[in-house]
Amino acid sequence: MNTYKIAVIPGDGTGPEVVNEGLKALQAVAQKCNFKYETHTYDFGGERYLRTNEVLPATAVSELKTYDAIFLGAIGHPDVKPGILEKGILLKLRFDLDQYINLRPVKLYDERFCPLKNKKPEDINFTVVRENSEGLYKGLGEFQNKGTKDEVAIQVSHNTRKGVERCLRYAFEYTRKYGKKKQLTLCGKTNVLTFAFDLWERTFYEVAKEYPDVKTDYAHVDATTMWFVKNPEWFDVIVTDNMFGDIITDLGAMIQGGMGIAAGGNINPEGVSMFEPIGGSAPKYTGKNVINPLAAICAAAMLLRQIGEVKAGDMIENSVKEVVLTKLKDLAAGKMGYSTTEVGDLVVKHLK
Ligand code: IPM
Ligand code: MN
Asked: Fold for domain 1-114+256-352?
């Protein structure tokens, strides 16, 4: 029997509440699918930072490398200046663990929860492959004449051939394997970002030659947001850079029913991956047992698939779907008709 080692970082705000429900589902499915796992919980987050003045212990990254996967709740604390925890924990882990893919499925389970008119589950079912280690997130740039009336702030998008190519390859492989239409769309801005997206576009069509079974397509990022609203059914798999991927996946989350259901994986195909609900720490709802844990539960399902427990992942996802379709009044915090813990219990109950 396989025993997996899973690091758990509940983090800030509602993170711990949703992570608990994810772990509940994990435990139930492990019994049914006959695998074992051990968890170790790390207290990284705002509270720890305020207490110790340390964002991440020096040993964190090397320790986390010894796990099969990481399950993360949320990072972000109202008493900590924006950027410190995000950069010091979330982005640092993504970078240092070289999780160069951010995989964000956009899947509508029930048309009742779609803000778009006349869109059904079959219309909203695509995946965004976001590059997760470069671009504007690299943090390159500088101030010139800071604080003066001649101030200039420069923020550079850093794209390497190797970084772009490995992301594109992952996207082509993913499309070949899981794409419903075997269609991969590059989302960029070739008409304005004539360095960065020139590299992306050239590499895209070069790599495409190795995947004759995958149809290629291109959309500018602004048009992509338009299609997300107008014709989301056109998409199958989308690949894009870090910044655009960040932006379009919030829109993606909304059309699939909101942050309550949107999960993502920070993936290092050759190393340790980290799974998280993509919504934030939601301070407003913290400790009230009202936040929707389904995004975290779906993140746990993605984690299971990544470590090879595909059946267990599918089981969780099917149960989530059933609970969404037959039980929940709404996917938003406080409006589900059930508490956070009750929704977790419902998912466990509907596992089969
Ligand atoms: C996300 C978040 C992060 C990002 C923030 C919190 C740094 O918005 O996971 O999408 O920009 O990547
Ligand atoms: Mn984001």
From this structure: Isopropylmalate Dehydrogenase (3.40.718)
